[in-house]
Design a protein that fits this description.
Distance between the termini: 39 Å
CATH architecture of the largest domain: Alpha-Beta Barrel
Radius of gyration: 24 Å
Shape: globular
Strand content: 15-25%
Largest sheet: 8 strands, mixed
CATH superfamily of the largest domain: Aldolase class I
Bound molecules: iron/sulfur cluster
Length: 358
């Protein structure tokens, strides 16, 4: 499904000393509520091959005046049209200056008493000094990796800096120094460089270990007029992003290891489409994990059972720790609708009677 439905425009009435002005702003419906999501400037010196804002592409360029951006945002916030600001920019100048200006806008907002949500996307190669300033005043910082390694990155964003030193190491620095509740995220142009899924799996694991809170997989869409649309005219299907999100959650919350996913991959290192969820497919591909005994399994062993997630697994462990006997009735109650799916993976011999559906 396209992400465009998450976007809309809303108008803000600005009442200044000189005049009344109506300003249209883009609003992005995030999971936490509507955000004023905008670029400080759509001018850019880079030539990322997938991007319609590349200097090679013919498009109109806009630039916010800093004071106007702040006024419009505060007005939209007061009118409850947005719950926060998400600020990024084209690279209209060197990365240090662009990131610095974005952070200064956040600083100005805090200075005038705004305490709400600010998400800033930092540019490749942002110096430590600016990163540390951003860490003090924002709620979320993103640095986009764009591709799962330097060679793929070079293919789609040849002028945007060095993948390891300007992007990955900066993202790692942000994650290392971020203090809760500040969150760190990154984004990939999924499929832009023709990269297979296998390239993402170990990287997701590494990023999760480094406390990157969220990874966004934006399926590549060839945009007419961009260079990449001529080289790679194939849309990346949405289901590919869905699988990688599921893998991210399985690694982050279920403790799954990169090696678990290897049997899923075809000979090109890609996950073939299926109507089954990744976790259910893994259960079929790893018969050695089962059956699992609910009286003795660890938290992470329980999480391998289709239908058992962290909430149910924690509940089972808590009951065991309290000495509660897991009777057939209780197990069916805990598993609820997941029972049908889960039962064939369970060893129920210690429950004293069979739970199997007739
Ligand atoms: S730096 Fe950003 S805005 Fe500029 S071309 Fe690359 S992706 Fe587009």
């Amino acid at each position: 499904m396209s992400r465009y439905w998450k976007w809309r425009r809303t108008s803000i009435l600005l009442d200044t000393a000189e005049k009344l002005e109506v300003v249209e702003i883009p609003v992005y419906q995030s999971t936490g509520g509507p955000l004023f999501k905008t670029l400080y400037s759509s001018a850019c010196r880079m030539d990322c091959l997938y991007c319609p804002l590349s200097y090679n592409c013919y498009t109109s360029r806009e630039f916010w005046r800093r004071d106007k951006l702040i006024r419009v945002f505060i007005e939209a916030y007061k009118q409850r049209k947005v719950r926060g600001l998400f600020l990024s920019s084209g690279l209209y100048a060197d990365p240090e200056r662009v990131s610095e200006e974005l952070v200064e806008i956040a600083v100005d907002l805090r200075r005038i008493g705004y305490n709400g949500y600010i998400h800033v996307r930092l540019m490749p190669g942002t110096p430590k000094r600016v990163i540390r300033e951003a860490l003090k005043i924002t709620d979320r910082i993103g640095i986009n990796l764009e591709a799962p390694g330097p060679s793929y990155f070079q293919e789609i964003a040849p002028s945007k800096g060095r993948w390891r030193t300007d992007l990955l190491s900066k993202l790692e620095l942000v994650a290392r120094e971020a203090r809760k509740p500040l969150q760190v995220d990154t984004q990939f142009v999924l499929g832009g460089a023709g990269e297979p899924d296998i390239e993402y799996i170990a990287l997701i694991h590494k990023l999760v270990k480094q406390k990157i809170g969220r990874i966004h997989f934006s399926p590549y869409t060839p945009i007419p007029g961009t260079k990449l649309a001529e080289i790679n005219p194939h849309h990346t299907p949405q289901w590919r992003a869905k699988y990688l999100y599921e893998i991210f959650f399985l690694i982050k919350y279920y403790g799954f290891k990169p090696s678990y996913f290897i049997p899923l991959l075809d000979d090109k290192g890609c996950i073939p489409p299926s109507t089954m969820r990744i976790k259910d497919r893994l259960a079929e591909l790893h018969p050695e994990w089962f059956p699992i005994n609910l009286d003795t399994a660890s938290f992470y062993e329980l999480l391998k059972v289709p239908g058992i997630g962290p909430v149910r697994a924690r509940r089972i462990i808590n009951l065991r720790e309290k000495g509660v006997k897991l009777t057939p009735r209780l197990i069916r109650h805990i598993l609820g609708s997941a029972w049908r799916k889960a039962q064939k993976y369970l060893d129920l011999s210690t429950q004293g009677e069979t739970l199997l559906e007739k």
